Amino acid sequence: MHILGISAFYHDSAAALLVDGKVVAAAQEERFTRIKHDENFPEHAIAYCLEEAGITLDDVDYVAFYDKPFLKFERLLETYLAFAPRGFKSFRVALPIWLKEKLFQKDLLKKKLKRYSPNFDWQNKILFAEHHQSHAASAFYPSPFQDAVVLTMDGVGEWATTSVAIGRGNNLEMVREIHFPHSLGLLYSAFTYYTGFKVNSGEYKVMGLAPYGVPKYVDLIKKNLIDIKDDGSFRLDMRYFDYCTGLTMTNDKFADLFGRPARQKEDAPLEQFHMDIAASVQAITEEIVLKLTRSLAAEFNIPNLCLAGGVALNCVANGKVLRDGAFKNVWVQPASGDAGGALGAAQAAYFHHLGKDREIVDGQDAMSGSYLGPEFSTEEIEARLTSAGAVFETLGDAEVIEKAADALASERAIGWMQGRMEFGPRALGGRSIIADPRSATMQKNLNLKVKYRESFRPFAPSVLAEDVSDWFDIEESSPYMLMVADVTKQKQREMSKEESDLFGIEKLNVPRSEIPAVTHVDYSARIQTVHAETNPRYHALISAFKSRTGCPVLVNTSFNVRGEPIVCTPEDAFKCFMGTELDNLVVGNCFLRKEGQDKSLQLDYKNAFELD
To answer: 372-411: buried (b, 16+ CB within 10 Å) or exposed (e) per residue?
Structure first.
């Protein structure tokens, strides 16, 4: 049985394909169109999924969409009526778009999909899941658990902003919801907007900025903006927010509360104030998430927790949930945002709607390491690189690992494109920029000279799974880079009083451990454990680096510059290589050196894309 899942028309459109319940392909549309967070109908992602399975749409049994447009439209109308006449301007902007494109989405989907299969039975074979049901399904069904509590937290679906489901076998029952406008995701987005970053993409910058600050505004936020109950439920005071009635997230009352207006431009100076604001909303988020998980663990007495929704990408909060121990086991969907809704809709259709049996193999999850996107043969890579004008040598499997490890040990930064592309926002060794974590200047140089983004943003370590506890305070696997833990005390370097007293960003220049390029200012790191079972080539590379240096860790960041989607094809990789100060590019078995390339093909990526 073939089920195609689709998410589209809001942000991060994607497609996913199940064959007899197994995830065989999944990808975001942005990777093909090169439009960051592309919200359009995912025709390229769909085409890829069908091609990967060797089928056409005529072979698909059901198409599942990730939310219910009529319920979203109901929320729009009821919100306007609740706040009228305030908000008429935003309502006037939104209504024509809904009437033209979103309200009648079933007809729109049928029209789009008829191009693939004019005779498909769309009336009976297109299914709609609720938004949070899709998120919950994407978290539970691929998890390694037979039974689990499933917590979904995001901005808003149809009405739900936080929901709880109980998964048992192939059944997933939604048992509790918090409704719009009370939203942890939108609270975080409001502070993202207030600190001058883009909503729906800049939230991770706030998380990265938080360790530079002091959470001095927590009491002010709790006194005025949010009422948090002991069980983690909450209510926002909507007098301070504008997302129900306006075209911005916060209003003048919000600005007056903190004593200054919102930071207007991303390139405006970041002050200690903004760092303290980031630290404060991060602390509030962690408090809510921990209260929720503790109360759910006590109530349901199930040892396993699954997380999804945009808030589940807050890996700092995830790490605290794991260490808190209220749940023995925690699993987070690697594509926790709306892209993962495509997968969840398909899985909800297969397991819940159709009642198909679910199998768990040896306690492993069903995401195949999240390597679910396109891959290219050596012949395809050679032909595509040649057509792009690249100068390269094709090496044997062992030799390419050895040469790449030698380059890394020489502090050369590498664009690394291998195997299938990752599904979700994290690069996991399939489409990564990698480097030596021991270098005291690597983090700053990668940010400013390769990624062309803010210098404060941290990089993640990829570490051999078998060595993780020697370097980080974590015993569990973290294959999807969704858990944060500290570097072990033995590897840390204590900062002097003078170094600790430095202004936030200046702390970047102070090495804090034996692997300073992946150690944040609070000694934390966003960890990816690398497993030989799911990514043998990346595991072999880190092992070769370890044999040269004694260090089983590499810097890993996504293979793109800020504002650009992660690379998908060999051509994308070569363009990014030639537009940045990367030293080497390794695509499959093809090895490239920057100094060997045609200088006329150099690009200027520094200002090629908008800030993300």
So the answer is: bbbebeeeebbebbeebebebeebeeeebbbbbbebbbee
H or E stretch covering 255: helix 252-258
* Three-class DSSP category at 366: coil
Q: For residues 319-335, give the mean pLDDT.
A: 98
Domain with CATH 3.90.870.20 in the chain: 378-601
Model pTM score: 0.93
Element (H, E) at 550: none
| Alpha carbon distance 197, 176 (integer Å) | 32
Structure tokens of 309? 């929704």
Say whether pLDDT at 93 is over 60: no
Helix (H, G, I), strand (E, B) or coil at 103: coil
Structure confidence by residue, pLDDT tens digits, 363-421: 799 999 999 999 999 999 999 999 999 999 999 999 999 999 999 999 999 999 999 99
Can you give the pLDDT at residue 156? 86
- Neighbouring C-beta atoms of residue 564, cutoff 10 Å: 24
Q: How would you label 103-138 residue by residue, b for 16+ Cβ within 10 Å and e otherwise?
A: bbbeebbeebbeebeeebebeeebbbbbbbbbbbbb
Instruction: With cut-offs at 50, 70 and 90, classify the pLDDT of residue 159.
Output: confident
Joined tokens for residue 107? 């007809």
Top mean pLDDT of 103-117, 156-170, 450-464, 488-502 is at 156-170
Residue 110: C-alpha distances to residues 56, 105, 122, 597 (Å): 16, 8, 6, 47
| Topology of the domain comprising 184-330 | Nucleotidyltransferase; domain 5 (3.30.420)
β-strands 553-558, 431-435 pairing: antiparallel
Confidence bin at 489 (pLDDT 50/70/90): very high
Which residues on neighbouring strands pair with residue 526, listed in sequence order? Answer: 484
Angle at 307 between CA 304 and CA 311, to 5 degrees: 150
Q: Which amino acid is at 237?
A: D
List Cα–Cα distances, 440 to 128, 212, 548, 556, in angstroms: 51, 18, 18, 15
Provide the CATH topology of domain 2-142+336-368. Nucleotidyltransferase; domain 5 (3.30.420)
The C-alpha angle with vertex 29 and arms to 24 and 30, in degrees rounded to 5, equals 130
In angstroms, the first-to-last Cα distance of the chain is 39
Q: What distance in Å separates the CA atoms of residue 83 and residue 489, rounded to the nearest whole number?
A: 53
Mean pLDDT of the chain: 91
For residues 227 and 578, give the distance between their C-alpha atoms in angstroms, rounded to a whole number.
51
Residue 598 has a CB neighbour count (10 Å cut-off) of 10
Instruction: With beta carbons less than 8 A apart as the criterion, state whether 577 and 592 touch.
Output: yes
The rounded percent of the chain whose pLDDT value lies above 70 is: 91
Beta-bridge mates of residue 151: 164, 307
CATH numeric code, 378-601: 3.90.870.20
